[in-house]
Amino acid sequence: MEPLNTTMLVKTYKRFRIEKNGEKDKLANHLIREVAKLSYKEPFWETVKKLGLKPEAVKEAMLYLEEMGEIEIKRASDGRRLWVLTLRDIKRNPVRLDRWLGLTSERRAGK
């Protein structure tokens, strides 16, 4: 696994924040995939902070992708979101996310 470029992740998040619609999906997807590579490092949120990102940045990108229908954030029985478990699933099975991206893009194009 190649080392993560922390400045690249921060720049990706900043671009995600200012982008209107065009590449916002791609930027959020890229950010989440890179952060998912670290999902097994404990404590996860401390690792994210060391990258120069705030946990809220990762959560914001994940919520955006969920709103777009591209991922589904896992939930506990009490309704709390399970952020890290969702990232671990993305790391374990990235093909599924690609399929979801393809399916949702086709649905949006068909509308």
How would you characterize this protein structure?
With 111 residues, the protein is mostly helical. The protein is 66% helix and 0% strand. The protein is globular and about 35 Å long.
Summarize the structure in short:
The chain has 111 residues and is mainly alpha-helical. The protein contains six helices and no strands.
Keywords, please?
single chain; 111 residues; mainly alpha; 6 helices; 0% strand; globular
Query: Helical residue percent?
Result: 55-70%
- Residues in β-strands, percent: under 5%
> Could you say which overall geometry the principal axes of the C-alpha atoms support?
globular
- Gyration radius (Cα, Å) is 14 Å
Head-to-tail CA distance between termini: 39 Å
Number of DSSP-assigned strands: 0
Element-by-element helix/strand order: HHHHHH
* Average pLDDT score: 83
User: Based on helices, strands and strand pairing, what is the structural class?
Assistant: mainly alpha
Q: Main β-sheet, in a few words?
A: none
Helices, by number, come to 6
Low-confidence stretches: none
